[in-house]
Specification:
Shape: globular
Helix content: 25-40%
Number of strands: 12
Strand order of the largest sheet: 7-12-8-9-10-11
Number of helices: 8
Structural class: alpha+beta
Strand content: 15-25%
Radius of gyration: 18 Å
Length: 243
């Protein structure tokens, strides 16, 4: 049924970050960066993909040679989807997910998507998507640096948002107030005052965590994978931020 309903085109309307739903691959780091890019610079995503007219696409990541991508029916159905609210947003997510895998695995790899089995590095995925050097900030500092870190993180995130760069982060602890999965990448979409909006690449499939009686926190019920995190809790529970 999902194959039958799959669109044929790369784009149906502008790229929508909220349309991204992580599939069976462990591509959360790549998808988190892609969500953030769709939020801040969707035109950059359109520039990466060219339709060839024969059922294939040419993807050009900034500063890298182009790669040709074809999708099997199974890859259309089981990879990361771009099911937007009320309709479909095209195949651009699955196309870019496979293109990145081909770049990392090499042209002759028989199964490029296998690179996602052990996850991918957030800094590397961001640098491939943007063609620019990304900055990694390790969180959970102690002592004087721990006191200064919220200011450092705020400044780095605000600068990246102004520059239109994608921002990602990864969660350190299973014992977090939102009961979100750890060893998992998330997008940072904005910062307002002392609060950040982050998005889980899972989207609405449990992506907003679960109610926690100890912290009196509850998902907002919007089913969009977005949650609001205070800056204090962000530097306490998250492992790193890449921007």
């Amino acid at each position: 049924e999902r194959i039958r309903k799959s669109p044929e085109r790369a784009f149906v309307g502008p790229p929508d970050g909220d349309a991204i739903r992580q599939g069976r691959h462990g591509s959360c780091a790549f998808l988190a960066a892609l969500v953030a890019m769709a939020e801040n610079d969707p035109a950059a995503i359109r520039r990466m993909i060219r339709e060839n007219g024969d059922g294939s696409w040419t993807v050009t990541f900034p500063g890298r040679p182009p790669v040709k991508v074809t999708l099997s029916p199974a890859e259309r159905a089981l990879g990361a989807s771009s099911d937007a609210q009320g309709g479909q947003n095209g195949l651009w997510v699955a196309i870019l997910e496979k293109a990145y895998a081909q770049v990392q695995a090499g042209h002759n790899s028989p199964d490029p998507l296998a690179i996602y089995q052990d996850g991918e590095d957030e800094q590397r995925t961001t640098e491939v998507l943007t063609g620019q050097k990304a900055r990694r900030i390790e969180l959970r500092a102690t002592g004087l640096m721990g006191l200064m870190q919220p200011l450092q993180v705020r400044s780095a995130i605000e600068a990246a948002i102004l520059a239109g760069r994608p921002i990602t982060c990864s969660l350190f602890s299973n014992d977090n107030p939102w009961r979100l999965p750890s060893s998992h990448a998330y997008s940072v979409l904005n910062i307002r005052g002392d609060n950040l909006t982050i998005r889980n690449p899972w989207g609405d499939m449990g992506g907003e965590g679960a109610s926690s009686p100890n912290t009196r926190w509850n998902p907002d019920g919007q089913m969009d994978g977005r949650i609001t995190v205070s800056l204090t809790d962000f530097v306490r529970y998250f492992r790193e931020v890449v921007c």
